[in-house]
Amino acid sequence: MEILTKRDVEVRKNELISRVKDGAIFIYPTDTIYGIGCDATNGIAIQKLRELKKRPIDKALSVWAPNKKWIEENCDISSDNAKEYLPLLPGKYTLLIPLKNKKAIAKNVAPSKEFLGVRLPNHWFNSFINDLEVPIITTSVNKSSEPFMTSIDDLDPRIGNYVDFIISVGEIKNKPSKIVNCKTKQIINR
Predict the structure, then answer these.
(1) Which of 14, 88, 111, 137 has the most CB within a 10 Å radius?
(2) How much helix, strand and coil, in percent to the nearest 5, is found in the chain?
(3) How far apart are CA 155 and CA 175, in angstroms?
(4) Residues 6 or more apart in contact with residue 19 via CB below 8 angstroms
(5) What is the CATH number of domain 2-188?
(6) For the chain, which residues make up each domain, given as ranges?
(7) DSSP-assigned letter for residue 143
(8) What distance in Å separates the CA atoms of residue 129 and residue 165, rounded to the nearest whole number?
(9) What is the pLDDT of residues 2-44, one digit of tens each?
């Protein structure tokens, strides 16, 4: 496991993009908590991530979209009030939006493929995801239903031993994103 800084990401951006596209599983900072993910179009990497987190296949994963244009092209923002909530992004929200382009993500991201949890954090790491040009899986760094990571010091070795790299920015003491169900207009604090 390699630990990288923001500067490392800037200097080695092209190399890291190649690694992610080749199936790397990695830990990264967001505007809420640390996340763990991989290329959301790579079904093999997603399966490895699910196994690592012990996340059942019937539980959908969310994605960090490269930008708002990707959301507009691949999600149905005209239905279920999604257009009303899109201005919340970038920000500390996960929008549940109907997915219109089922080929935009691997099949094992969201089993029903009806709705997709979409994030666009307000964070410097957005530029990396934008340059990657595909969404990444975004989920908390923990085994399912266990406490999430706030710094490298509390990284569960059952996860840390299997990630390709970590982008560390020190301690992040926030809460997970709020989930907005665009259809019901319900906001869920976690």
Answers:
(1) 137
(2) 30, 20, 50
(3) 16
(4) 26, 164, 165
(5) 3.90.870.10
(6) 2-188
(7) S
(8) 15
(9) 999 999 999 999 999 999 999 999 999 999 999 999 999 999 9
